[in-house]
Amino acid sequence: MFDGMHRRIVSIWFPRLASDRALRLRPVEAPFALSLTRAGVERIHCLNLAAVSRGLHRGMGLADARALCPDLLSRPADPAADARFLRALCRWATRYCPWAGIEGEDGLVLDITGAAHLFGGEAEMLADMRARLLRAGIAARLGLAATRGAAWALARHGEGVAAPGADPLQALGHLPVRALRLEEDTAAALDRLGLRRVADLAARPRAPLARRFGPELLKRLDQALGTEAEAIAPVAEPPHYAVRLSLPDPIGLVSDVMAGTGRLLEALCARLKDRQDGARVLRLTLNRVDGDSRQVELRLARPLHEPARILPLFERGVAGVEAGFGIDRLRLEAVQVEPLPPCQTGFHGGDRTDGLDDLISRIGTRIGLENIRRFLPADSHIPERSFLIAPAAWSEPGRAWIVPHPRPLRLFPPEPIAGTGPQPPGRFRWRRMTLETARATGPERIAPEWWLEDEAWRSGLRDYWRIETRQGRRLWLFHTPQAPGWFVQGEFA
Amino acid sequence: MNIGSLPFPPLRRGRAHEVCGPGSVFFALAQAARIGGPLLWVAESWQTERINPAGIAALIDPGRLLLAEPRDQTEALAVTEEALRSGAVPLVVTELTKPLGLTPGRRLQLAARDGNATALSIIADRLENGGAGSNAAETRWHCAPVFDAVFDAAGSTLQRWSLIKNKSGTLEGWHVRWDAQTHRLDLVSPAGERPGPEAAPG
What is the pLDDT of residue B191? Predict the structure, then answer.
C-alpha cells in the first residue's frame, strides 16, 4: 500500500540521554557530567547544558574538565541503565505508531506512515512528542522525512521536516556530509576534497565516488534520498518473566504466603512454558505493610517450569521471612532463565534424576548451590589434578574413569616423614604412629607438568610407592630425588 | 558385589549406622557399591583430607557420587537429614568431625526412617576413643586394613570389619577382601584364624 516514496519517518535523537536520565533521578542545578573510564582515563561521557555552556565537551578528560570548571558535579555513567532507559523510551514511542525502533545508542526511529492524522497531522504529532519529552526532562531533536536516512540527518544536523512529495535534496542539500551516517574517515576525506554538503556530493558523478570511497557512501546517499529502500524493524520486546499479586488484606502465615506464591508460580510457569524456557534463579519479593520488603531467592539445580516441583523448594526461604505487620504484595521474578525445550521422556528412568535435582536445589538453599559438587575426570597424571570438582548444578556426570595405576582412596596435602635414600624407609613415624613397612610396590615416577606453574611440584620428580605396613595401614608415599625427602600423600583402603 | 551371601548383615535400610577406624572410607564405598544408585557424601569444606575419585573408581563409578560441602557439622547434619528425608539418594555418608549429640543422632535416625534411606556416619579417627558415636545408631562398625603376608600384593585389600554395636543382634568380626577384578567382596576366613584387630593400630 505504501511504497517507499509515501513513507513518513520520524527520527528522534536524544543528545544528552545519559545525563538527562541521571538528572531525572537526582536533579542538580550546577554543571553536571557523567564520566566513563576508557583505557584507564576517566573521560566525560555525557553532560548537561550548564556544563556545555562552560566550555566542556564530550570525551574530555574529567581532570581537565574540573580544572576548567571547579564546581562541576560528576557521577559515574551506567551505560547498561541508559540502554534500558532507551528501550523504555522506545516502548513509549509506540503510542504514536506501532513501528518503533532503536537507532544507535541514543536515538529512536518511528515509521509514522498513516498514523499522523490520529494526532491531527504531522506538525501536531511532532509538537506532542516534543512537549511530552520536554515535560519528562529529556532533550530531543526531531527529524521527519520520507526516508530513514533523511530523518536521521534532519534530527542530528538541523532539526526540521522534509515536506512530503518534495525533492529530498531541498531539505538535505545544505546539511554537512556527516549527516549521511558515514564513517569518520570517509567524512574527513570528503571534507578534504571540498565536498562539505550533501548537495555537493549528490551533484558529483557517481562512478568516481564509488571507486574512491566504495559502495557504502553511495548506498548511504541513496538511502537518504529515497532511491534505495531501508527497513525499520520494531524492537522485539524481551520476554518479561515477572508476575505479581496484590492482596486486599495483609497476610502473615507461611501457608498463606505459600498459597500466593503458588498462584504466581502457575502464571509464571505458563509463560515460561510458552517460550520453552526454564527458570534457573527465582526471586520472590514480599512487600510488607510497613513499606519494608523481604526477598527470597531460589536457585535451581536445573532449569524448571513445573510449579509443583518449584513450590516446595520455596518453603524453607518463606518460613524464614519476618512478616512484620503483614505482607500485602508478592512479586515473583525469574531472574535467570535458560532454554528448556520439551523432551521425550522414556519408559524407564525418565524421571529418576528429577528427585536428585530437586534435592540439589533444596540443599543448595541451605549451603549454597556451588557447594554441591561432583567429580569429573581430567586429563592429567598428576594425582591432585587427575580430576575436576565441578558444581553439580552446572555439570553432567563425566564419562568413564580410566585409572591405569592404583590410586589411594583418600588424598591429603603431602605430610613429610623421616626417610633417606631412594628406597622407602623400613620404619617411620606418621601421625604419631610408628609404622613398619612390610611390602613396598613401586616406584611409579610422575614428572611435574612443566607447562603449569604449581608450587607443590617445585621439588621436581616424584617416585610414588604403595606401602603396606605391618600395622595394616596402606599408604601412598613419594620420594623426591631432586630435593631429597619422603612424604605421605594418601591412604589406600 | 555379592554381599548378600556373606554371613554378616548388610546395613539395614531406613536406619542410621556408624563406622570408625582407618578403613571407614573403604567400608562406606563398599556399602555404596552394594546399595547402588546415587551417593551423597557430606564432608565439611575446610577438611584437607578428601576422597580421591581416581582411587574410588576401583569400587564405584565416581559419577554416582555427589559431594556436599557445608561449613560446619550443624550444616552437615542438616544437609544429611534433608537428603535422607527426600528419599532421592539411598545412601548418605557424613564425615563427622565432632561428637554426635543425642538429639542429632536421634534426628538422623528419624530422617533415615522417613525417607527409607541409609545413613552412614564416618567417625573421625581422633574421635574414636571419646565415645563419639550416637546411642541412636543401629549399628557401629570398626574397620581397619590388615596386613596380609600370604596373599599376593596386587589388589589385596584385606580388611577386618568388626561390629562393635548392634541394636538387633550380636557383636562379631569378619575378614573381608575386595576383589578388584570381579568387583565383589569376599569373606576370607572366620575371624580368629587371622591376625585380629589388636594388630591394627587405632
Answer: 47
